Amino acid sequence: MSKSVRPLRVREDAPSARCACGALRLTLHEPPQLTALCHCLACQRRTGAPFSANAFYAIGSVEVAGASTEFIRTAESGRKVRMYFCPACGSTLYWKAEASPSLIGVAVGAFADPAFAPPLLSVFEQSKHQWVRLDGTVEHFEGLPTGRS
Ligand SMILES: [Zn+2]
Ligand SMILES: [Zn+2]
Fold it and tell me: Which residue(s) pair with 144 in the sheet?
């Protein structure tokens, strides 16, 4: 991309996400295609939090910098989810699901941006912690959204 004719107020850098120590970083060259919260038990274990906040990007729009370690989890569907975490600090930064090969999932917290796009979907609410309340703009699903995988 040319930097020569941009107005001064435009951010020169594309949004980026990084692990806790900063060694593993992503640059996102397009907006997310989907944002979702997931209350499944695997996400609870992965994040250490009651639910995960996830943003999904077209695979070609994500630039990865730094070393990562892969952890492969088999989903209930039998398909694999490949997660990538920083070998130095352990933060899982992004993942690729066999079920949706054109997308990369990114941990929303890794943007450290309170103004990040809110979630559109809330999935696997069958295992949602009871105290978690979400506002009315989110679409709720007990499991996965029908017609998605
Ligand atoms: Zn790190
Ligand atoms: Zn999940």
Answer: none
**Distance from the alpha carbon of residue 44 to the mean position of ligand 2, in angstroms:** 7
Q: How far is the CA of 147 from the centre of ligand 2 (A)?
A: 17
What CATH number is attached to the domain comprising 35?
Answer: 2.170.150.70
Residue 72: which domain range? 16-112
Residue 70 CA to ligand 2 centre (angstroms): 17
Q: What is the pLDDT of residues 37-95, one digit of tens each?
A: 999 999 999 999 999 999 999 999 999 999 999 999 998 789 999 999 999 999 999 99
SS3 assignment, position 63:
strand
pTM, whole model, 2 decimals? 0.87
Ligand 1 center–CA 25 separation, angstroms = 9
* Farthest-apart Cα atoms in the chain, separation: 52
Query: How many domains is the chain built from?
Result: 1
Tell me how far the alpha carbon of residue 70 lies from the centroid of ligand 1, in angstroms. 14
Q: What length does the chain have?
A: 149
Residue 101 lies in a domain: yes
Token pair of 93, please?
């930064």
Distance (Å) from CA 82 to ligand 2 centroid: 13
